[in-house]
Design brief:
This protein has 16 helices and 22 strands. The protein is an alpha/beta fold. It has 3 domains: about 180 residues, 3-Layer(aba) Sandwich (Alpha-D-Glucose-1,6-Bisphosphate, Chain A, domain 3), CATH 3.40.120; about 210 residues, Alpha-D-Glucose-1,6-Bisphosphate, Chain A, domain 3 (3-Layer(aba) Sandwich); about 80 residues, TATA-Binding Protein (2-Layer Sandwich). The strands form 4 sheets. It has a 6-stranded mixed β-sheet, with helices on both faces. Strands 17, 18, 19, 20, 21 and 22 form a 6-stranded antiparallel β-sheet that branches. Strands 8-7-9-10-11 form a 5-stranded mixed β-sheet, with helices on both faces. A hairpin with a 6-residue loop joins strand 9 and strand 10. Helix 10 packs parallel to helix 11. The termini are far apart. The N terminus is likely disordered.
Amino acid sequence: MAEKRCPGEKAPIDDAICRARQSHRFHKCVECPSRDGKLQGSGKPQEDLRRKVFKAYDIRGVYPTDLDEKLAELIGVATARFLNPGSVVVSRDMRASSEPLSRALTEGLVTAGANVLDVGAVSTDANYFAIGYYRQGGGVQVTASHNPAQYNGFKISREQAIPLSYDTGLANIERLALGPSLRPAEHRGTVEHKDILPDWKRHVLNFVRRIEPLNVVIDAGNGMAGKMMPPLLSELPLRVTDLFFKLDGTFPNHEANPLKEENLRDLQKAVRDKGADLGVAFDGDADRCIFVDDTGAPVSSDLITALLVGFLIGGGRKEAVLYDLRSSHVVPEEIRRFGGVPVRERVGHSFMKATMRQRNAVFGGELSGHFYWRDNYFADSGAITMIHVLNVLSQVRKPLSELLKPLKRYYATGEVNFDVEDKDGALKRLEAAFKDGRQDTLDGLTVEYDDWWFNVRASNTEPKLRLNLEATTLSRMEEKRDAVIGVIKAG
């Protein structure tokens, strides 16, 4: 049988890649020397496609206009080619588009010779668990996390749940997916289906120390926590009020983004109405969570990091604890107070996880609500974070609001976002305006003074600049916030 070739192509073409590329309506096969690099009908260059779906930390776009089954198949082929993993964990969230995208991705992976361990609809942290626990060569979670219903995407990891960012692998997958054709594998991979919930549940319950019959409200946001929580909760002596546990990728009650305070209102009301000890809100793929205290007030995640330090390190060991550079100064202060080693890192899970491995850090926390655990393959898990907070409350038997009071010794703006055309210009203006402060450029620009500090950084996921500022007094915070905003907007 003659090898298949595109017109003008010298090398044989991979059938799966050819099908996927043809479905994306390239004017000419991307292998052909005469290709013009545009998508038929849209007139958009391939670079526009990359900007839309290949992000800093994952692959994400609107379904099906930016990301459809054919592109998913192509990404599956490219992922197998790049990772050469042997076997890959594939899982998905509850969005309507996740199942067809998962099927297409799997087809691409097996066509390229990879074996697939399909673990079905689970949370992203369960995908990480499966990679590590079953010693797989990589994993892909089909999810758009906290994004609205029309979005979907892929979070890709290599062995040991090491994440791929654009700098550490997604660029290679993009190049393979949209670049020259590859020969098909001599042998197709296989697909094995596995229920991992019993093993995942045992793993998470290993983090339980002593949990009292606390009164807890949990908001799953119609996301994957609605499936993952019940098996855990059945083993814990909690009195639980569950909100929006029914899986529904249309998010009929509110967006599954607990960083937006408007999405916490139902949780806050339930905590107050029930006289609960705390509330927990999960994002769509349940790899992170945000807490509400016993008064119904949202708790900043950096304060959770600071709270956990005293219970997770100590005993004379110089344990490293990571925190992202947006976090309150109370975090490194608490780490030092308990004999730990504070490690400041730039924002983003790929950076946090890499440094955690290098430093063998016991845990790490980000302002976004991602918490990373050494004993969880250095990966983030909303469920494990919740367990640790329950451990703390059960041990000290004090209200969460009371435990947090001594940690609230600074005044912070929270994250303030700006649409700025010339981001580099804004950062240069800030550098010049505050040149008398201690400056570093680990991630954007951080400037520190004795009684206040700020960080301004470009978002990795949106066309925005993000400001975080903290001071020793409320008046100082407001004064310096206005001064920094004035410089940002001066351009």
